[in-house]
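Our consortium's second objective concerns turning raw sequence data into structural hypotheses that experimental partners can test. To show how far this objective has progressed, the report includes one record in full. It was chosen at random from the queue rather than selected for favorable results. The single chain below, 515 residues long, was entered without modification.
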Amino acid sequence: MIRKITIYVTYFFKKIPVQIFIAYILLFCYLIFIWGFKLDTLPGLHGDEAWVGLLGYSYKSHEVKTIFGMNHYTGVLQPLIAFLSFSLFGTGVAQLRFFGVLFNVIGIALMTKMLFNYNRYIPIIFLMLLGQSSIYLVFPRIAWEVNTFTMLMVALSICILGKIISSHLANRLGWIIIFLIINFVGTYNHVIFASFSLSALLGLIAWQKFNKSTDYSQILPVLIVNLINCFIFILTAKYFSELFDVKFLWISIPIALLAILSEGFILRKFLEQNFKVAFKIPRPVLLIFVIFGVPLFFYYHGLALIDVFSNYKVFSSIYSYRPSNAFKLVLTITGIFFGISSLYFILKDLVTKSKGSIPAFIITAHIITFNLFTTNNSIRYYLILFILIFGYLSIKIFKSRIKNFILLIILISFSINAFIIIQIFSIGPKSYIVNRVMIGNKQIETSGHFLPKKNLVDSLSKHNIGNIEYASDRYFIEQPILFYKLISPWSEDPNKSAYLDYRGEKGGFIIFIKK
């Protein structure tokens, strides 16, 4: 009898069948292609990206003047990695966006490794969910601080929490310190990252309360201290941001590191005593939070979540894409299906309260507390929630009795969105029109901010334009022009002026040259 021969390869030090490994590679290559192809031109350089690039380039000749980005709730990690990329690879749009792609690849590799520990097929479902999701097909290409670091920092945080739980006491100190540093840096990068710390803590507390369990108590003190660190920084940055000048930076960094090291030693000593931490929170109090928090979340964010699940509005608002009514219908149906499936699995786990239900409690806590951070429907703010949902869904789908049906829905959404992306990549810059898209119940996004601007800059350079007048959206047009001018400066004639505006339905920009 001929035996079936299975070839194994090593994936993160574990053997898996070669056909599964090939599936991983193909899906990874697909994501990398989607993120890297025409990275320097699509989408068009956004004003905030250009601002980051200009600031990062300024570090070549000027020292860092502030530790904050555009406001008190963002840091300068994005300009710093732009400076690093420019130093290594030269100055350009692709270089500005490079580390966003790299960090997302690393983050997804870590997530697939963690999901692989459940079952070797689950990462395939996770990668397919990412591959059919517009926010993960598009946002890693845009050099915003949330897009660049969120996947990596969430993946690292989850991975290190697992290490803290499973590792020997002697090895926990290092993992605890790394966890505290990552979450502090993540919150410094953008305040929205603290929503992960808060939901992880409250979700685990709620799970313990409803399950009447002290399992995983050893990480509760770590999560509490971590959350305190994050909120101390948030409050200090909001109300005392003037204290954080560059001179103070060289004092504050050692102080922060010393504080985290001290916390790490204290936490290790605490864990060595094997205390069981339990919170005496009355169940009615938790129910009140649920009763008020969940409806408020869906009031502010429910429609936006359906828009993100349905995908096509993201393509419309960033790539100026106008899908057919048939695509809109199918993608809306699949989006509602994914949303309902998520709610079904979460509610089922909240009722059963098994160990495997902890992610459902954390996602619920994230939903309940998210309004504390923002009621804005900006799509990038949902990146953390969708990482948690897709990781959770991939496990639940694999265990579901209707797994094959759900996988078919994923495949349909995956195929349609792949087709849309290929269409987008194949059209020319002049085909990009200005779409105004309603996200959720109040957020208006315009694709004009993402119009390709290279041709516009080439025209200005060709005519040696020295003065520019802007009909609208000056910041979102001027900043990219300044960045392109940094890359390829032109000889400016002060007597030559240009008047710029969007062409709207005709696509691109209209330029009036005044001589």
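The partners drew two points from this record. Residues 181 and 256 are 9 Å apart (CA to CA). Strands lie at 8-11, 14-17, 436-439, 443-446, 465-470, 493-502, 509-514. Both points have been shared with the crystallography group to help prioritize constructs.
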